Amino acid sequence: MKVPFDRTSQICGHIRGLLCLTHLRVLKGRKETVPMICNPSTGQALPLPKVKTRRVKVRSFLVYDPIEKQFKVLSMTWPCYGNGEKNCEEYQILTLGTQTLSWRMIDCCLPHHPAHDGICIDGCLYYQAMVGPLSGISTIVCFDVRSEKFSFVKKARGMVLYGQSALVNYEGRLGAIQSDELHGIITGQTRSLELWVLVDAEKHEWSRHVYALPPMWKNVVAEAELNIVGRTSTNEIVLSRHYSSVLSMFSTTIPRGTQS
Fold first, then answer.
1. Residues 93 and 215 in one domain
2. 82, 102, 131, 204: which has the fewest Cβ within 10 Å?
3. Which domain holds residue 195?
4. Distances (CA, A) of 145 to 93, 158, 175, 202, 217
5. Per the structure, how many domains does the chain have?
6. What value does the CA radius of gyration of the chain take, rounded to a whole number of Å?
7. Are 120 and 182 found together in one domain?
8. Where in this chain does the record put each F-box associated beta-propeller type domain (predicted)?
């Protein structure tokens, strides 16, 4: 079937030319949200089975295991009653390419709530998460696609992640980029970008790099507020307008900075 992308669709992840999105469909007079795998180059889409849950909210991630060469979809569900976001209560995985597509439960001994989109690097999914309802404590979760195990990545001393911080693939390693502005939003007043790179995942060691923006940056951005979309293989940081239905893209190249 063709990709049914409309205002009800939400992109949940992309990797190796495929997209995972959730789409609102009407089945027998009832509305339900289901995940789909899409190939933008062909325009084809594969509907996936509905996640088996009684929980109200669902968050899905498309992941890839380069050793077994398998695509999987990780879904987490949680209730939405009361105030604030709750920790996830169910974790399910679906392996693509099997004869029968079905969800199966997996265990997670690290209670958390996914806060932002993730990125899959060398068989591991990384995403920002909150470790408790209304706690205000953020962390980075690592999901090993092959073993299907969760772990936390410790942040470096002085490392603060905002809601607008972006996790990126920096030369095969996990990177986190944000601005020097409060909450990480990029404006014409932003003077520099901060990049943290996970140099040793086992020891949780990070390196910090600061890149000064050119004086003309204020004139280029003007009054716009920007989010970091990601990083390209040519070391460009791609930005888009904050809270806008109009797609406007900016980019800036970060030089090989000096560790601070």
1. no
2. 82
3. 158-260
4. 10, 29, 19, 17, 40
5. 2
6. 19
7. no
8. 2-243
